[in-house]
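User: Okay, second chain of the day. Same drill as before: sequence in, structure tokens out.
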Amino acid sequence: MQEKGNISIHTENIFPIIKKFLYSDNEIFLRELVSNAVDATQKLKRLSSLGEFNGDTDGLQVEIKVDADRKTITISDQGIGMTAEEIKKYINQVAFSGATEFMEKFKEAKDAKEIIGKFGLGFYSAFMVADKVEINTLSYQQGAQPARWICDGSTEFEITDGDRATRGTEITLYINEESEEFLEESKLRGILNKYCQFLPVPIKFGTRTEREPDGEDEEGKPKFKEVTVDDIINNTAPIWTKAPGELSDEDYLNFYRELYPFSEEPLFWIHLNVDYPFNLTGVLYFPKIKNELELQRNKIKLFSRQVFITDEVKDIVPEFLMLLHGVIDSPDIPLNVSRSFLQADGNVKKINNYVTRKVADKLSELFKTDRKSFEEKWADIGLFVKYGMISEEKFYDKAKDFVLLENVNKEFFTLEEYHNKTKDLQTDKEGNVVYLYSNDPARQHSFIQGAEKRGYDVLLMNSPLDNHFIGQMESKLEKVRMKRVDADVVDKLIEKEEKIESILSEDQSKMVKDLFDKAINKPMMDVEVTGLSPDELPVTVTMDEFMRRMKEMAKTGGGMMNFYGSMPDKYKVSVNGNHKLIQLMLNSKDEATQQQLARQAFDLALLSQGMLTGADLTEFVNRSVALIGQN
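Assistant: Same drill. Structure tokens below.
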């Protein structure tokens, strides 16, 4: 038998299009060809289960061989094979899926949808790396004759009698000069590990040596010998293909180590398993993220029937869960012809919503069943929860019941618990409950101490997302205001009806303000003299809560926030008119001494905020030494 002809296509110059546009990465040729071989093998198994094939199906595998001398790569299987007529139908009609007819024939059979069987453009990815491709195949059908198909990358092909003696298909790629890197065994192994690590049929790539018991030596100690075995590079039954009831915690941990061998062990995991209204399985792990938002991304691997597709899953997984690790496998995810990019589809949104709900349900369950453990993990969990609440309204609705607020004393509260804790003492004269917080307890210690003397509680808000989370809390919680503990003197953070009056007269207040203005001599420092408790510091330097928050958000937000980020820093210098130091200044008749005391008090305020540096710090130290010497 010999036949020549033209491949049936509907677009001129299909091969340049395949090479340059349909596929984003030429290494996926191996994924496509191995996947097709696996499909052919699974079809045979399916036919056997349906009674359509009575031959042996034990030990089926796909094998990849490379011959650097001949410059060939060969992918062979023991699947259903093809007749010459099927080659014409499935291979020569570009983009025709061999699965279509197969599925139609067996559509009433249970689980027939599990068969991929995509010949067509997937097969033609071979010409991205090969000058010539040869198929040598023998169909499973009784009495079938072997057939050979050869094509040099043009639209012309040749079919002749083949010489394959066993059922299945062997595809040989004659690698072109530009693609000889694929003749390196290490290169192919890397691609196979990336795309074929979890295919459901054993994939053989060469051999390896193993040690096996070989009796005992003269002293009765066990002996071993080295044996050569097939090198099967894949795990055919990864845990996401199994029911959760079949798996132990150690199974999940071992799989995580297999995926991420150099990572710390995860906090916990979620097993996904749904078959309506879409098919999806997978396992998502919560890693230890150490307050990092960017470094951990692209750790979720997307599969389609155990074939790796991509780790770019931003449409499948909500943005806030991109920090998770693990795998998602779904045959219902719409892909373009190269299987490399997701396409807009209703199922994508449904899957996105499902994953969000499952994560929220898991977190809620953990909180309710073991709150102590939940609190212990909060440093890692909190970033996910806050990110989700900020970015997903549906997630917020669920998470508001288990999100935790932590105070500087390492105590945890739900939103409701914290409101009940603070509402009596921390309600201002306008009826707002004021939540005080610190983003740096060590630096803001004196302010925290001042608040705690009043009986106030101070939250810890130091994660990368807390500026945004604080804004959301104010918008969602009725009559709640958030103020950083160093945003003002404590009595003005939560203003009450009763007010401490300054003992200074109007003229004395003006005199003190003038003294400090001259001593400080910095236009960004706005001095005000106010009445505070005599126990408070003589001078406090603060930045307005709104302005400081806008500036901090500008560092990460961009857009309109940049307006605030470009504005110069301005601070309020609150002088406590009731402090004895102010009286000492007023009683002194020496203006130089007054200026010195004013500057010293101001520098102490800066020092408490970590704002005294450089020449100003040196001057402060020298001045302090001089003052000590005077006494």
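The chain is about 35% helix and 20% strand.

User: Thanks, on to the next one.
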